[in-house]
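Take a protein:
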Amino acid sequence: MTDEEIITDITFKEPEGFHCSVIFKQNYLSTAHIVVNQGGTSSGKTFAIEQALFCIAGENPKQVITIVGQDIPNLKAGAMRDALNIYSSSQVLQAKIKNYNKSDRIFEFLNGSIIEFKSYDNSQDAKSGKRDYLFINEANGLPWDVYTELALRTKKRIFIDYNPNTGFWVHEHLIGKPGVQLIVSDHRHNPFLTPEVHGKIEALKAVDVELWKVYARGLTGKITGLIFDNWYICESIPAEARLIALGLDFGFTNDETGCIELYQQNGELWVNELFYETGLTNTDISSKLKEVGVNVNNEIIADSAEPKSIEELKRMGWRIIASKKGADSIKNSIDILKRYKINVTGSSVNLRNELNRYKWRTDATGKTINEPVDSWNHLIDPLRYIALNKLKINKAGNLQSRLPHRQNKQQTGTLYGLI
């Protein structure tokens, strides 16, 4: 399917109660057993697939539809949030749904159909349960053996979506095979984005062509030169860990305001995402800090480029200071962080996504230069601010911290690169 076929196809009448993109039509009307949605950032593929699944559930009684993600935090931040937005914005859909069980994460329809959200730890776990329809969200976060067990227990149709950072089992085992339809989409196919967001994504071309191919055009890439390969996923912050500081990066319309808390224990760093949102005023930021339980005595290190915002938050009672800046501040802070093992909580979904995209820039010849791409870093930047201000280096160039001397069970996470 070409871009022209997607963009100019306007003959389809959208279902009552929904405002849909053309990606919805491609999924809703597909007769393939496996429908693969490869797309760039903000193409709306997850939203469109879930709209199609809500229609299928409402129109056909006693259907079991399972939406699977790599873990529950990812589902909550993505597919589940989209599903609740779809549900809350359509009175027609609400009239067909009996209830939404928040604890079990299940939509129950009046006709007996259900849509459930699940994650599976391994292939053995995935053997439990059968279904009519399956949706694998962000499929490059799931192993092939888990997918295989789920697919074997799906009767009618399988939907898959992902950002094509690099090739994985979908490309090796599915695309090009009989019964598999490939839909390639990008932000241009999403009619609900603002011109500013479209412009922000297109601007990647001037920064890094490989990133632009993947995230602005939905083309399979091979993103090399990732900056951090020393981070792991952990369940939670250890109780004995010491809080170093909070980091805050300001945004508003197009860029998110990001806030993290950084802890240290046994010579390792432990990071937890607190919030990551657009449209936050300084008053909103203050409310958010209270909402997530930040103590007014906790030190906050914020972007020094926003002195007015720092002063306003200080007058609201927060202990906030500006980050250190300098000619090599970005490189130096990265060098500091790369000397640690960094543990990131599973609930820090946006930080995890940034770490999987944060890479060195390349020049016109494709050669890596010693400067990071200035995109998707609104939680990484606060992490850098803390590193510069609080994680000191002695004159010999060594970090003033203890090395790990024991292995904690909570520390045995999986090292994530591209997910």
